[in-house]
Design brief:
This protein is α/β, with parallel strands linked by helices. It is built from 14 helices and 16 strands. Helix 2 (50-62) runs antiparallel to helix 3 and helix 10 runs antiparallel to helix 12 (352-363).
Length: 439
Amino acid sequence: MGVKVAKFGGSSVADAIQLAKVKSIVEGDPERKYVVVSAPGKRFSGDSKITDLLYLCKTHIDHNVAYDQVFQVVCDRYRAIELNLGVNVGLEEEFRIIDENLQKGASADYIASRGEYLTAKLTAAYLGLEFVDTAGLVQFDKHGKFLNEETNRALKEALAGVDGAVLPGFYGSVPDGSIKTFSRGGSDITGALVARAVEADIYENWTDVSGFLMADPRVVKDPIPIEIITYVELRELSYMGAGVLHEDAIYPARAGNIPINIRNTNDPQHPGTIIVGDIDEPAGKSKVITGIAGHKDFTVISIYKNMMSGEAGFVRRILSVLEDYGVVVEHLPSGIDTLSVVLANKNLNGKLEEITEEIRRRLQPDRMEVFENMALIATVGRGMARRMGVSATLFTALYNAGVNIRMIDQGSSEMNIIVGVENSDFEKAVRAIYEAFVE
């Protein structure tokens, strides 16, 4: 018999109704031995996530504002879940401890982590599985840096004799025992870490969508689901905005060569999307593209200087300017005497004019143009590599749609073509690419 690790996101544990679905899923397959849970998410539009409420409690305390009513909302959510599940995990004592620590100035990480902690306690009792706390197992150093191998060893040892457990996601601890969290969505990471530690056959990530789609359904009507995707393709699409899975969850599963299956708690019969290390397909038999993703709001600084390619250190000096201003470079497409620097507007923080002046001073370009309000669109697919006519199809589709391409960047893997267009052309461009390759 194999082993599966099942992680359930906030929407899957939002209330007792959803947790009943979780129980049916877990008990429906005896290979699902280890369960990782998030904190309860929204039950309906306008509802609040438990994690947001817990952070709000901490904010109120830090600003000397009464937090009692917000904390009461959190407690009542959990009381309702406990009552409806028909279990008893000593919630009142847990609330007392959390409240006491709040008043003593506990960290935001500690407060936020209690959402996952309490959910795991309730879920373990409901499923009849052992509760295993991730504090002390998921390890960070004293500076907050995640310790991958130490965590793998600790989890492996702790779960070696446990034939079925529920673990809270999102957090671990530093050497002194203080709670340390991952970034939001970090329960995905915990699930992948557990899967690697127990050498799972598959890591199931249960959420409120049936896997990945080839394009954003807010832009393309009824896009085709992605049945199977490689880690490399997913990384490309995730970087450009395709959500569902925390991107840092990819590494532990990939390191353990464990497939990830994105599934829908509300539609458990749907196979979802499988993420694998590699796909053995006959040449030319794979789909040309796997997916399309993109973001708006970039700025492109285009630099021209005669004989740039023969000037040692030219690129380094551009990057040093951006480093001095603390701005991350998104892309760096180049020609013989031209170089474009692509920056996310959210990282510029009003520094654009200062940056361009500093580039002029240090590099003395012959010409420099700035294009604001740009969007980047990535067309990704393992089938693109060595497939003739892919670029021609893409560029023809954009031409026919009346979209002006301001930038082109193709990765060395030949499975990704990124184009830069005006923000106003973003949706039209995505639909044109999708129709050209899919419809």
